[in-house]
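[Meeting: bench + compute handoff]

Bench side (C.D.) handed over the final construct sequence. Compute side (W.E.) agreed to return the predicted structure before the next meeting so the bench team could plan truncations. Sequence as handed over:
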Amino acid sequence: MTEKKSLLVVKDLKKYFSVKGGPGRKKLTLKAVDGVDLEVLSGETIGLVGESGCGKSTLGRAILSLHPATSGSIQFEGREIVGKNRKELRPYRQYMQIIFQDPYASLNPRKTIFETVKAPLDAYKMGTEEEKVKKTEEMLRFVGMGDYQFYKLPHELSGGQRQRVVIARAMILNPRFIVCDEPVSALDVSVRSQVLNLMKAAQRKTGVSYLFISHDMSVVRYLCDKVAVMYLGQIVEFGSKEQIFHQPLHPYTQALLSAIPVPDVEREKKRINLLGDVPSPLYPPSGCRFHNRCPFAAEACSSMEHQLTDMGKGHLAACPYAEKIAANSFR
């Protein structure tokens, strides 16, 4: 088996936003992404999970420089992209794409889907007009669109069809890395499975890597090779999907997994109910950011920030009680 190469390396990435504190008040700093390390290998899919507002989408957009990073490093194929201007980033845009959550909002309502998918080829002047038309037709057929749909407008398509068009547009330039920002959350269950299988087929065909952002743990389990668990701007656990789903080491990960519905009325499952809501990133708790909701928290957790530690075989957790938690796992 061929060893996969490192495609994207993120080190200590931070993305802060300045927020007005109200009349006569100082500006506040919202720490949306606060010191994230992440490595994506070629041809693999990493799932990024966590509650709403934890910074998942901001991290994805910061990696693509749609939100310029406040500090840190992003290396794509060994080349640093943090600090580059729009012109310098243009060559990288071809190989780093995004699939947005709402396909309708990301499509031009005045352009046919054929024009939309062909537009990236025009922007990068890839081939003759005849070659661009042929490639666009092939890509639309690959994602399951019929020839009779090529010249329809977005409002004439269903949600699943629009998402197929967005995937075709993201894939048309043969990218090496795609951020998938909850691409199936708004789709029916039957359509969702079709789109996920389409993404798998595209990965087998091209070797593209995905950063798959989702709330749906069952989808993550189906599609992803590795999983990163995010809480309040930080990665608190990282590992293979087998490690995360069968032996979670962080109490927050355990709580997320306990919320997965079980399609068996006779099977009793212990649900972990966390106290309170996710704190505001404007006023993150001191020390471990999860300590005020953690059932295992000790006094030291409120004053000491825990770093990701390798607990064996590449399974990382930011909790000093990871071994104790594993022994008392709800599974």
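W.E. noted at the follow-up: The chain has a mean pLDDT of 88. C.D. will use this when planning the next construct.
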